[in-house]
Task: inverse folding
């Protein structure tokens, strides 16, 4: 694959602009009272492999409602929303990659964090000023200041940074803060209760029904400890989970840090286990936790239909990132492999977005914010790193000139990322800082430590087992991606680019 350049690049950009204008004209021309509501459903550690409409899911997966949503919209085959919980959310609140989220920092017991709203404004405050009622329900993981009254009109949240002692309470016993005031411990199953609150809001609770609304519904599922609802604990009893090819080392062609992973051990029969639990039992429990999400989405679609709002509600369904179960020896996120970070992404709006369509173009979390602003008919309040996806929602097979960048800088944000750390400080969850670039069928990964680069052809090698970076036949492609990655870092103002050789 050759990267777009010269006249082809200009032609593609013009085509993208014209397509974006087509959707934008419909949005702007609509009566302001008909501006779309926006329901952003955001799950946690939720791999694309758990959703039945993705061909990479196991054949026994049951997600009928999310699959239905895909039939009613566009499913993106390759979505890279973030690398782990906090920076993914920071991106979706600012439209910036992690290195552009200024003043955000970790402090105090994990996951304690803080930011300066003057230096790090969140965009929901902007659409509030343009007449949207803004709401956030569920997990909050981006500074102890949740922004109630500034960014959000309506907010019921588990403020995880403010209550680090309960940071593992993903499913029960969460301290929930209501509308910026009283905090009470939630004893019920969080996935179901978050859905209850979302249904109430969509039905009119706490909002002016004459105004359009934006709801960011942040489920904690299916983050560890991967606890399913009681009603789902018997499901998937007889499943078979194949053992990933490189669950045990050695892993030919992988960098040293990946060779060192030994999360899984073989039992006496050679089957992978953690402690006394098999890979199959872990994967079963993880998928059981997805079932309540699917049921929650069903309830959300039902209330939209019953209240007559479905036809004017843009729905975005995605996750902060994925999660690897055995692939490359992992049980984690963060790493640049699709198994660890690739999310589901489905976008639906009846009459304005094609139905039952699949977009093969890789896209990123930074692209979602400009897309939301386009549909809301509001100009971007500041320069954002991503690109409005409406050309791909107009024509999912449209030519797309933009590579998708993803960076991992551990727990460090903004200008604090300008200096690349040394030693153990350059690692987070045993993964070094890195830059990833996706375009066409290729993925390029450059660690920001002294270790191997990686290049994969995801069409012929979807499991990312064959690193092409050391193959002389791919030198031209590798060089092209090196240059493209540097160009994208410079375009988006990554301070550490000057330290890269």
Result:
């Amino acid at each position: 694959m050759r990267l777009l350049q010269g006249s082809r690049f200009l032609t593609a950009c013009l085509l993208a602009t014209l397509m974006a204008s087509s959707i934008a004209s419909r949005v702007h021309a609509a009566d302001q009272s008909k501006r779309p509501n926006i329901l952003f459903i955001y799950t946690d550690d939720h791999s694309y492999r758990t959703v039945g409409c993705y061909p990479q899911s196991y054949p026994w997966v049951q997600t009928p409602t999310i699959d239905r949503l895909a039939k009613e919209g566009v499913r993106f085959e390759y979505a890279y929303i973030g690398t782990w919980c906090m920076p993914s959310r920071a991106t979706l609140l600012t439209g910036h990659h992690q290195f552009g989220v200024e003043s955000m920092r970790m402090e105090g017991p994990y996951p304690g964090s803080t930011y300066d709203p003057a230096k790090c404004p969140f965009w929901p405050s902007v659409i509030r000023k343009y007449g949207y009622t803004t709401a956030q329900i569920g997990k909050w993981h981006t500074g102890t200041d949740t922004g109630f009254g500034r960014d959000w009109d309506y907010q019921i949240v588990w403020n995880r940074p403010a209550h680090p002692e309960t940071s593992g309470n993903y499913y029960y016993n969460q301290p929930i803060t209501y509308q910026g005031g009283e905090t009470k411990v939630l004893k019920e199953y969080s996935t179901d209760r978050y859905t209850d609150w979302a249904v109430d809001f969509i039905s009119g609770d706490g909002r002016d029904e004459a105004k359009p609304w934006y709801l960011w519904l942040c489920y904690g599922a299916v983050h560890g400890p991967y606890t399913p609802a009681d009603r789902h604990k018997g499901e998937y009893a007889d499943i078979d989970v194949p053992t990933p090819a490189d669950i045990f080392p050695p892993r030919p062609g992988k960098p040293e840090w990946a060779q060192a992973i030994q999360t899984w051990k073989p039992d006496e029969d050679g089957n992978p286990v953690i402690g006394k639990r098999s890979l199959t039992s872990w994967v079963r429990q993880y998928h059981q936790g997805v079932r309540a999400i699917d049921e929650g989405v069903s309830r959300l679609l039902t209330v939209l239909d019953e209240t007559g709002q479905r036809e004017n509600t843009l729905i975005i369904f995605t996750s902060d990132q994925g999660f690897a179960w055995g692939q490359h020896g992992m049980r984690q996120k963060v790493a640049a492999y699709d198994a660890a970070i690739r999310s589901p992404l489905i976008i639906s709006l009846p009459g304005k977005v094609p139905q039952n369509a699949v977009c093969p173009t890789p896209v990123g979390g930074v692209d979602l914010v400009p897309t939301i602003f386009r549909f809301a008919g509001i100009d971007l309040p500041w320069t954002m790193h991503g690109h409005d996806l409406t050309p791909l929602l107009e024509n999912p097979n449209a030519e797309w000139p933009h590579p998708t960048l993803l960076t991992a800088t551990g727990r460090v944000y903004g200008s604090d990322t300008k200096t690349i750390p040394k030693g153990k400080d350059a690692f987070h969850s045993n993964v070094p800082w890195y830059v990833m670039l996706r375009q066409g069928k290729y993925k390029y990964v450059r660690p920001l430590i002294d270790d191997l680069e990686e290049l994969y052809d995801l069409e012929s090698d979807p499991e990312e087992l064959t690193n092409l970076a050391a193959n002389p036949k791919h030198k031209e492609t590798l060089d092209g991606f090196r240059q493209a990655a540097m160009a994208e870092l410079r375009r988006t103002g990554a301070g550490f680019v000057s330290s890269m050789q």
